Amino acid sequence: MIYLDNHATTPVDPRVLDAMLPYLRERFGNASSRSHRYGWEAEEAVEKARAQVAGLVGADPREIVFTSGASEANNLALKGAAARREKGRDHIVASPLEHPSVRETVEHLAARGCEVTWLGVDGEGRVRPGDVARSITPRTFLVTVMAANNEIGTIQPLREIGRIAEERKVLFHTDATQGAGKIPFDVRADGVHLAALTAHKIFGPKGCGALYVRQGIELERQTHGGGQERGLRAGTLNVPGIVGLGAACEICRAERDEEARRLARLRDRLESLLAAAEARRNGPREGRLPNNLHVSFPGVDAESLMLAVPEVAVSSGSACASGSMEISRVLKAIGLRPDLAKGSIRFGLGRFNTEAEIEEAARLFVAAAARLRKVARR
Ligand SMILES: *Cc1c(COP(=O)(O)O)cnc(C)c1O
To answer: Domain range for residue 298?
Structure first.
C-alpha cells in the first residue's frame, strides 16, 4: 500500500512515539496532581510541550490551550468568542472553504442570532482581502479564514487579512490545521488572535490539538467541571497526546523548510507524470501546500478510479451521500465543472513517502485512467 492521504491524517513519526511512550508507561501521572512526583513529572512534560507548540507558531506558551484536536479548538474559539462579544456586535465574516468544524459552528451561531457574511473566492480558492475589508461593518466581531485548505491546498493571504482585522478592531480566527508545520505561520506576523491546530495532521497522535489564544482575548469556556487550561477547557489532560503534539511541533519547526522543498519536488513530479493521463490541476500552482496535489481526470469517475487502484490510499473530491454523488463545497466554491469535480482526486503527500512510491502511484493511476476510458468508449 502507498499512503497518499496525509490531509486526512498522518502516521505517527517514530520519534514522536518514542517521546510519548514513557507517559503511557511509568510516567502516567495526572498533570493536576500536586502532591507527588507522578503529577509533577506529568505537569513538567505538559509545560515542555506547551513551549514546543508555542515555538512552532511564534506564540507565548501561556497562549496555548490544549484540546482534543482542531475541531474542539475551532468550537472553543468561535463559540467562546461569540459568547463574549460586545453588545450590538453580532456579525461574522467567514470563508466558504472552511472545514465542517468551522462552517457548522458558524452556522450554529447564525441560528442563535449572529449574522454571517460568507466570502467568495477566486477560481483557485483564494479569499480576496479586499472582500474581507468590504464585508466588515461596525457590527462585525470576528473574521474566520483558514490558513490552508485541506482539499485543494490553497494558502490564504493571512497576513493581509490580519492587517485588516487589526485596523478594523475585529478578532481574526484561523483554522491553521493544514498550514502549521508545513508553511510559514506566525501568529504575530500574521495578525491572528485565535488559531487551531491538531497533532494528527503533523505526524503526531490523534485526539490532541491546541488553540492559540492571544493574550488579552477573552473566551467563554465551553466545558465545565475542572480548572484545567486556565479554566477554558475542563478535563484531565491527555499527557501522552500532549507530549506527542509537542514533539511533532518541535520536529516540524526544525525540518519544515527542508521537508516542504522535498515534498513540493515529489508533488511536482507526480503532477508531471499524471499529465500522461490528462490530469488537470485544481487550485493554484504557486501558493499551495507543498504536499498537496488535487487533479481532475476528464472523462473518468473518481470512485471507479480509486476502486481500480486499491494499492494507493487517496480521497476524491466528491462523496457518495445517500446514493447520489455529492460534490464537495470547496470544488463548488471554485466553480469547478461538476463532471471534473466527479473525476477529481486529492493526493496528500507526507514525510514518509519516497520517490519510488510516487512513481509507482503515478504509473497505477495513468494505467487505470486509460483502462476506464477505454471501457467508457466501448
Ligand atoms: C483535520 C482537520 C480538522 C479537524 O481536526 P481534528 O483534530 O481531527 O478535529 C480541522 N480543520 C482542518 C482544515 C482539518 O484538515
So the answer is: 2-6+256-377
Catalytic annotation, residues: 320
Question: In ligand 1, which atom is closest to the CA atom of 101?
Answer: 10
Atom nearest to 206 CA in ligand 1 = 7
Residues in contact with ligand 1 (CB, 6 Å cut-off): 69-71, 99, 101, 146, 150, 175, 177-178, 198, 200-201, 209
CA of 204 from ligand 1 middle (Å) equals 13
Last residue of a domain, one of 182, 216, 251: 251
> Is residue 241 domain-shared with residue 286, that is, in the same domain?
no
Counting the structural domains of the chain, the total is 2
Angle among Cα 144, 150, 156 to the nearest 5 degrees reads 45
* Mean pLDDT, contiguous 10-residue spans, the chain (378 residues): 97 98 98 96 98 98 98 98 97 97 98 97 98 98 98 98 98 98 98 98 98 97 92 96 98 98 98 98 97 97 96 84 74 95 96 98 98 89
CATH number of the domain residue 266 falls in: 3.90.1150.10
Rounded to whole angstroms, how far apart are CA atoms 108 and 224?
Answer: 20
Distance 229 CA to ligand 1 centre (A): 21
Give the CATH number of the domain where residue 37 resides.
Answer: 3.40.640.10
Distance CA 87, CA 29 (A): 43
Cell numbers for 335: 466553480
